[in-house]
Amino acid sequence: QGLMVNYRYKLDDIEKNHELFAARNDVAAAPAVRRLLPKQARPAAPPLPAAAQTRRDA
Length: 58
What we know:
single chain; mainly alpha; about 25% helix
């Protein structure tokens, strides 16, 4: 069972949302979308090990 949603990219939030996912495997979603998830929802994949993560220099 799954859920498909349309994405709305807010340019000011893209970097913050990427960092949130990279650091905590958390996907940014509106509260209305989050309410559709089961209480015990788990991420689809575990976070990458720190050694596998890359960060570009700003």
